[in-house]
Amino acid sequence: KGNVIDGKAVAAKIREETAAKVAELKAKYSRVPGLAVVIVGERKDSQTYVRMKRKACEEVGISSFGADLPETATQEEVLEVVRGFNSNPDVHGILVQLPLPKHIDEQAVLGAISVEKDVDGFHPLNIGRLAMKGREPLFAPCTPVGCMELLERCNITIKGKRAVVVGRSNIVGMPAALLLNKRDATVTICHSATKDMESIVRQADIIIAAAGQPQLVKGSWVKPGAAIIDVGTNPVDDPTKAAGYRLVGDANFEECKAVAGAITPVPGGVGPMTIAILLRNTLVSGERFITGKLQCPVAEDMKAGCSK
Ligand code: NAD
């Protein structure tokens, strides 16, 4: 496949490694990690993601817990569900599928998840630690961790390299930039107000494209040999497909592939990594709880978040 990174194969490997470790825990302690997935409302895309996550848990032997709340659920009802999972000893990871309906304060809900069960890595204490020198989060967000893992498993050096992240969302762009910074890349973040983006992107050894704009990054923007991790998952009309659409990334794949040293396809690149990392984060959390090695980081800055 030349310079095309096979995200599906890497994700399958991580799932295998996770399943083996879950089996080990089960043999030794007769317990398995548990993940609770909370969904509010009837968004079709969210329902699909939640179904995929629950099925993926089963496949690696993680037990899956669910709460499906109606669109009309109140913030207090959602918080109540989160608190229930916080105190359930069989649940080691809690994920609230985003976006939440508009009348619910997303940050309030994410902040109510126990930091030590925050396998999505969106709790402000985990994000804060990701941004701090000398601190590590208990968990970092799954999609950006998946991007790092693809770079690392493809032997692409991060330290000392110039990385450009296109997009600065809480879920992808910003944590991707923070993770690259932790790995000693020199990081530039581009966003919708960035001027002359192409000259900035052209300096990059590593490009993380996460703007949600189909084929935004052109081949002519790419330094020869650069690595491109394309997070974008954009549906575009395609009457030749049964569904009437196909998915394209934030990079123009054919143009960029001709110049890049390595590139992830869409689909089959970053997409499969997200769930694989979620499973691995849940395993890590389950291991900490089940083996009794859960130590909330001793630092004072975590204390508040560790109290139930
Ligand atoms: P978002 O809409 O929350 O954020 C987009 C970011 O891109 C913003 O910071 C915005 O400033 C920036 N941006 C938008 N247009 C731009 C432009 N023309 N030039 C420069 N910057 C621009 O989106 P998100 O949740 O971060 O998701 C980004 C993309 O990644 C989407 O296509 C989404 O579907 C995809 N995604 C994929 C996965 C996965 O697992 N593969 C997971 C999450 C998101």
UniProtKB/TrEMBL annotation:
Residues 141-285 form the Tetrahydrofolate dehydrogenase/cyclohydrolase NAD(P)-binding domain. Pathway: One-carbon metabolism; tetrahydrofolate interconversion. Keywords: Hydrolase, Multifunctional enzyme, NADP, One-carbon metabolism, Oxidoreductase. GO terms for molecular function: methenyltetrahydrofolate cyclohydrolase activity; methylenetetrahydrofolate dehydrogenase (NADP+) activity. One of its GO terms (cellular component) is cytosol. Residues 5-120 form the Tetrahydrofolate dehydrogenase/cyclohydrolase catalytic domain. It catalyses: (6R)-5,10-methylene-5,6,7,8-tetrahydrofolate + NADP(+) = (6R)-5,10-methenyltetrahydrofolate + NADPH; (6R)-5,10-methenyltetrahydrofolate + H2O = (6R)-10-formyltetrahydrofolate + H(+). GO terms for biological process: tetrahydrofolate interconversion. Catalyzes the oxidation of 5,10-methylenetetrahydrofolate to 5,10-methenyltetrahydrofolate and then the hydrolysis of 5,10-methenyltetrahydrofolate to 10-formyltetrahydrofolate. Homodimer. Belongs to the tetrahydrofolate dehydrogenase/cyclohydrolase family. This is Methenyltetrahydrofolate cyclohydrolase. The chain holds residues 39 to 346 of 386 of the full protein.
